[in-house]
Structure to design on (280 residues):
């Protein structure tokens, strides 16, 4: 991947660049950006080309940054790029303007200038629907890209900037994004059937030791645990789950365990179980 300036630094003038573009030695991806030898550019190559085309201060951002951080699935559409100055739109690039990027809000990942994970989530909160945003936050936690302190600080710095209030509502105590695909689907199932919204990934104190539960219906003192195979299908995990359940029950909580099959293959049965447990 080369910019026109880099090609000129190799000693080629505009006519030589044009000749190589016509003969297939250079392939124009954007204005002033070329792939060398072929146009079979990878996803990351598309990302880098868009950043280069937007100027030296540009960074990958929004949905594209979230894809690079592996928080959401990659899309084949326009590439999101943020610049600290006015810039005209280009085909294949969605340009966002910002007054500034704070210290630590941009870095390089795989050689591509990109917004930090916290800044990416703030930007995503402006453009993504609730499901995509919640899953992106979940993946950021699972991949240990962020923690509560990191996101709290990012939201505080953002103040009234777009996305801050929405992200703050998602990550405030008891509302943190789900941590697994099963939790995500279970929460969607509850809300789709009109059940009350639970607190998510709540740390309960006042027990023999602090315990974090998947979903909590506080008024009913009901804990719902999403038993996905990734985290629960091993002898050690099963012993730990049994110990946690005994501790919760001793403290007066009821515990309902829900599996992937129960959520995805028998959703109506699962909703009925939850309704009965909640006394509805």
């Amino acid at each position: 991947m080369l910019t026109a300036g880099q090609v000129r630094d190799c000693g080629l003038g505009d006519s030589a660049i044009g000749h190589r573009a016509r003969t297939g030695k250079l392939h124009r991806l954007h204005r002033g950006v070329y792939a060398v030898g072929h146009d079979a550019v990878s996803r990351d190559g598309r990302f880098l080309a868009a950043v280069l085309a937007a100027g030296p201060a540009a960074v990958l951002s929004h949905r594209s940054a979230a894809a690079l951080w592996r928080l959401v699935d990659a899309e084949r559409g326009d590439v999101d790029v943020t610049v600290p100055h006015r810039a005209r739109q280009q085909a294949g690039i969605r340009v966002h303007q910002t007054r500034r990027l704070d210290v630590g809000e941009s870095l390089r990942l795989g050689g591509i200038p990109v917004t930090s994970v916290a800044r990416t989530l703030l930007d995503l909160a402006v453009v993504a629907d609730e499901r995509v945003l919640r899953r992106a936050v979940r993946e950021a936690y699972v991949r240990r890209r962020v923690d509560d302190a990191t996101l709290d600080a990012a939201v505080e710095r953002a103040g009234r900037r777009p996305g801050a209030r929405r992200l703050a509502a998602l990550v405030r105590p008891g509302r943190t994004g789900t941590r697994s695909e099963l939790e995500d689907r279970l929460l969607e199932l509850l809300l789709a059937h009109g059940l009350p919204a639970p607190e998510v990934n709540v740390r309960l104190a006042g027990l023999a030791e602090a315990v974090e539960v998947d979903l909590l219906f506080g008024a009913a003192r009901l804990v719902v645990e999403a038993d996905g195979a990734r985290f629960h299908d091993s002898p050690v995990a099963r012993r730990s789950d049994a110990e946690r359940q005994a501790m919760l029950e001793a403290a007066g909580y009821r515990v309902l365990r829900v599996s992937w099959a129960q959520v995805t293959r028998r959703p109506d049965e699962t909703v009925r179980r939850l309704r009965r447990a909640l006394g509805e």
